[in-house]
Amino acid sequence: MRILVLDGVSEKGIDILREPGFTVDVIEEKLSEQQLVEMIPAYDAVVVRSATKITAPIIAAGVNLKVIGRAGVGVDNIDVQAATQHGIIVVNAPDGNTIAAAEHTLALMLALARHVPQANEALKKGKWLRKEFTGVELRDKILGVIGLGRIGTAVAKRAQGFAMKVIGYDPYITHERAREIGVELVSLEDVYREADFITVHLPKTKETVNLINREALAKMKPGVRIINVARGGIINEQDLYEALKTGKVAGAALDVFEVEPTTESPLFELPNVVVTPHLGASTEEAQVNVALDVAREIVTILQGGMAQNA
Ligand code: NAD
Ligand code: MLT
């Protein structure tokens, strides 16, 4: 069995793949779709993070491919439909980076509330500014969590530690579940109307792309602050830009973008925008966790067992 490992998956996971009878090729540089189409026939399994897109042409060329492993949560960089049509199993690692992404969300929320990146930049440029960087407290503010799955729940619990009132929208969870995690389950309209901070923790699907658009932004509280550590495109960047320019949105913190990687965006020119380059899962712990989880799944599948996270 030959396994191709891409996107800098943690070495601890790769070690698990080095079973007797398995050959593991680790490629660090970014491969083009054409390069992958040419290489993939030699492989029984491929493991990626989010940088490499496993497209339909790569899947069609993968005549020996049995499993595609995603060392992380979102499988939107894999053409799952094409994989299913070819009888290839797609597995992910849904739990390993939950805490990393939740903590990054809190880091961005605090950075937004207290202008940490802007003050840091100004001071290092020789400007001692205090009045300009007066912030707001999280205490007693209403946090609206859209998507109360693993990360949304972890964010809600941590926000309660800051004495925030947490409301949430997720049509797929029960009121009982919401009560268990101390969240008042409300409609999307209510989240827009009531929340001082809004954070999205949704998968990227046809339903969720463009969810936060001009119309949604218009329904929000003036001065709302918005955080996206889920997926670019769930918030329409152009509409967000306009709402930030008018002051309707007081600030936005974004870890993910419609097109990635990106180093240029009109949003980057706004002083009330805090950005990170898709770092939500980038902790030492999370990268080991997801690599171990996905590697175990791949070994199980290649040895004829049942996948847990297919
Ligand atoms: P999850 O599957 O545990 O939770 C997603 C939740 O969204 C579910 O509870 C689901 O019911 C809900 N949902 C689905 N469609 C909805 C809709 N239309 N409206 C409201 N709720 C809806 O996933 P998770 O592990 O919490 O991950 C959330 C997102 O974060 C994913 O997009 C994932 O890829 C992304 N993520 C990003 C990073 C990063 O590095 N920035 C790290 C980890 C995960
Ligand atoms: C995920 O969906 O798990 C995240 O995008 C994290 C990542 O793999 O970079």
UniProtKB/TrEMBL annotation:
The keyword Cytoplasm does not apply. Pathway: Amino-acid biosynthesis; L-serine biosynthesis; L-serine from 3-phospho-D-glycerate: step 1/3. Belongs to the D-isomer specific 2-hydroxyacid dehydrogenase family. This is D-3-phosphoglycerate dehydrogenase. One of its GO terms (molecular function) is phosphoglycerate dehydrogenase activity. It comes from the Bacteria. The chain holds residues 1 to 310 of 525 of the full protein. Catalyzes the reversible oxidation of 3-phospho-D-glycerate to 3-phosphonooxypyruvate, the first step of the phosphorylated L-serine biosynthesis pathway. Also catalyzes the reversible oxidation of 2-hydroxyglutarate to 2-oxoglutarate. GO terms for biological process: L-serine biosynthetic process.
